[in-house]
């Protein structure tokens, strides 16, 4: 198996005022929280968004692992729909001391380049900042962070920076080069 160098950048916002929202795209784009934990739907989003950029770490999760993760208090999945069709998602993972990680964010390939990503990232980041309003007992959000890497889409880093995220760490590591699994075998 061949290894490739992968650069991972970690970015953060440390105050709600850091968010620089993108304009909403034209058309019928709505963002809705998936309030019922659904391993099937979350796996569909994960596999479909990440199929061409090397998201493989959750592909081996069992139904029970998906359910356990999605049922954790404060974990939220916000889905963008374009004319009723799932276009992408942002997944929030609350951590200790008022920290929320945008653990996954992206669009299905057919919806990239249509100005949906900036809007979805803006909306998801705002929901990270107000997460405690929906989860009594959780600490108010003090920091929102995420990471992106050199395998992600070519516009990912610029989108994060335009939304007000600031770089705080960079790492380069060797990773095994894996073939894109596609959304289904052979895709």
TrEMBL record:
Residues 29-187 form the N-acetyltransferase domain. Pfam families: Acetyltransf_1. It comes from the Bacteria. InterPro entries: Acyl_CoA_acyltransferase, GNAT_dom. This is GNAT family N-acetyltransferase.
């Amino acid at each position: 198996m061949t290894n490739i160098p992968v650069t991972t950048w970690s970015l953060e916002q440390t105050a709600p005022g850091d968010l620089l929202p993108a304009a909403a795209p034209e058309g019928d784009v709505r963002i809705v929280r998936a309030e019922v934990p659904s391993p099937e739907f979350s796996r569909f989003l994960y596999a479909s968004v990440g199929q061409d950029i090397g998201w493989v770490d959750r592909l081996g999760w069992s139904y029970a692992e998906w359910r356990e993760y999605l049922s954790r208090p404060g974990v939220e999945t916000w889905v963008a729909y374009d004319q009723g069709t799932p276009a992408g998602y942002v997944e929030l993972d609350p951590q200790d001391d008022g920290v929320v990680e945008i653990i996954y964010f992206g669009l299905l390939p057919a919806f990239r380049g249509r100005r949906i990503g900036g809007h979805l990232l803006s909306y998801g980041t705002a929901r990270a900042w107000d997460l405690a309003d929906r989860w009594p007992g959780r600490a108010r959000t003090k920091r929102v962070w995420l990471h992106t890497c050199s395998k992600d889409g070519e516009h990912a880093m610029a989108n994060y920076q335009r939304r007000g995220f600031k770089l705080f760490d960079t790492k380069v590591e060797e990773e095994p080069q894996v073939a894109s699994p596609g959304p289904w075998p052979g895709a």
